[in-house]
Design a protein that fits this description.
It comes from Pseudonocardia cypriaca. By secondary structure, the protein is of the alpha/beta class. 33% of the residues lie in helices and 16% in strands. It is globular.
Length: 338
């Protein structure tokens, strides 16, 4: 229905003393409390979604591409955007086709691990090109009854997709993951299931915040040509906000991420660093990266003291889906409460 009730916002608003050291600039100020306002939307925007209740078809969904009528429960869903395979499976829907990211598996490993009950169906998911350039002929050949994509990447091809099958566009980008999950679920007439998932997630994030203490957390992603820290308005940043976790001063910005030069690696420091290296599943492979070989990286207090944690690139920094969010929260909990 219209005018959804927002997900419970969770933040630990306590002043904390002590934070990560920054050897290049000296001792930084104490970590500030997490901001009271959520960094991203927690409900379907007003005027979007379907007026029909869950389980009801036909249903007409207003979304970021326009208005789409879905006449019956979708049986052949094609997903194009990052995190949508994750979101559909979380709701019990296995797509028949999916687009893939650059140099990424069609179905990410963390998704396969999370849903072993769908192993045979996931092995049969058909590729439909890349997320940046979906193959319209491959999509049409699957005879889908619903296509899911996001406006950030697919607005221009929305008319072409809609000519193939009913198409729903969510907004896209990681900080919008809750809103997008709810809108996707509404398209499948399962918005209540998605809301229950998010409420449970918020409750567990609150528990982490009550126990985690004053440690600051840093989020870093390394690829062949970029090294980035992620801000509050990012997928991982929003999850940290949900738990009331503190960020180092250099990462309290509102953008998704900031690039670091090799000389700026001190800005990645915190009490805990959660970092990924594209294509590296183990520390030995990650160590081959130029960033990890940089003496400035090795000299960061968190790295020196064994408080830098290598994480899976897909769920942490690529696939902004609900099961990815649960995995990130689980790994934050394991690291901070160990």
């Amino acid at each position: 229905m219209f005018g959804r009730v927002p997900v419970v916002a969770v933040a630990a608003l306590v002043a904390l003393s002590g934070c990560a050291s920054s050897p290049a600039v000296g001792e930084p100020p104490a970590a500030a409390p997490a901001p009271a306002e959520a960094p991203g939307p927690t409900s379907i925007p007003d005027g979007m979604g379907a007026a029909e209740p869950d389980g009801t078809f036909p249903r007409t969904v207003t979304h970021f591409g326009g208005t789409t009528t879905i006449t019956a429960p979708p049986q052949r869903v094609v997903v194009i955007a990052t995190g949508q395979t994750d979101a559909a499976l979380t709701l019990g829907v296995v797509p028949v086709g999916a687009a893939s990211g650059d140099d990424a598996d069609l179905v990410p490993r963390y998704v396969r691990d999370a849903f072993p009950q769908y192993a045979d169906q996931l092995a049969a998911v058909a590729p439909v090109g890349s997320r940046q350039s979906p193959n319209l002929e491959a999509i049409a050949a699957l005879q889908p009854d619903l296509v899911l994509a996001n406006a950030a990447a697919s607005q221009d091809i929305y008319p072409a997709l809609s000519a193939i099958a009913p198409t729903v566009l969510v907004e896209g980008t990681g900080v919008n993951w809750k809103q997008d999950f709810l809108l996707l679920a509404d398209s499948l007439a399962r918005q209540g299931t998605a809301q229950a998932f998010l409420d449970d997630f918020a409750a567990d994030a609150a528990k982490l915040g009550e126990s985690a203490g004053p440690e600051t957390v840093s989020f870093l992603r390394v690829t062949a040509d970029r090294t980035r820290v992620f801000g509050v308005a990012s997928f991982a940043g929003f999850i940290a906000w949900d738990a009331g976790l503190q960020r180092p001063p250099a990462q309290r910005f509102d953008a998704t991420s900031k690039d670091l030069s090799p000389e700026e690696l001190q800005l990645a420091d915190a009490d805990r660093i959660f970092y990924s290296v594209q294509g590296a599943a183990a520390e030995a492979a990650a160590a081959e990266s130029a960033t990890m070989a940089n003496p400035l990286w090795k000299d960061l207090p968190a790295v020196r003291d064994g408080r830098a944690v290598l994480v899976d690139d897909d769920p942490w920094y690529l696939n902004a889906g609900p099961t990815a969010a649960r995995l990130v929260l689980t790994e934050l909990t394991a690291a901070l409460l160990s």
